[in-house]
Amino acid sequence: MNRKQTQPLSITLLRSEPLDGAALAEALDTSGLLFPLLQAGMVNGYFADKTSAHVMPLRCEEDESGFTLRLDIQFQSQMAGCACDDDPTPQQALTEFMRCTLTFNREGWLETAAIKD
Fold first, then answer.
1. Number of folded domains in the chain?
2. What is the pTM of this model?
3. Do the beta carbons of residue 69 and residue 101 sit within 8 Å?
4. In 1-117, where do the E strands start and end?
């Protein structure tokens, strides 16, 4: 991921039980993490559609150093039709799926992001 996080994730959200996928997607988007995460995890398309992201939290663990968040994300991506500069009609959306592990420090700032194959 090559984009910086703009604000920390809410510790209250990370500690909530059960984790709310929609709230987590919104928090990841607000903090500037969602789009670069989707782009990094994309397999088939060219451009990730963050508005289609469905975040499914698997678990969040807290220890003395921070939080480890494991989640699945399903989203749509687009692929250019003919890949020419002036192509006005991209191909149909492609469904993408990714599993990732994010670690945050005690203040809610991202430390690492690992995308699983």
1. 1
2. 0.84
3. yes
4. 47-63, 66-78, 94-105, 110-116
Other beta carbons within 10 angstroms of residue 20's beta carbon come to: 14
Please give the residue range of the domain that contains residue 78.
Answer: 11-57+73-99
Question: Is 6 domain-assigned?
Answer: no
In a domain, residue 93? The reply is yes
* pLDDT exceeds 90 at position 20: yes
Convert the pLDDT of each residue in 84-116 to its tens digit.
666 666 677 899 999 999 999 999 999 999 998
**Whole-number CA gyration radius for the chain:** 15
31 within a domain of the structure (yes/no): yes
Angle at 25 between CA 15 and CA 22, to 5 degrees: 80
| Percent over 90 (pLDDT), the chain | 74
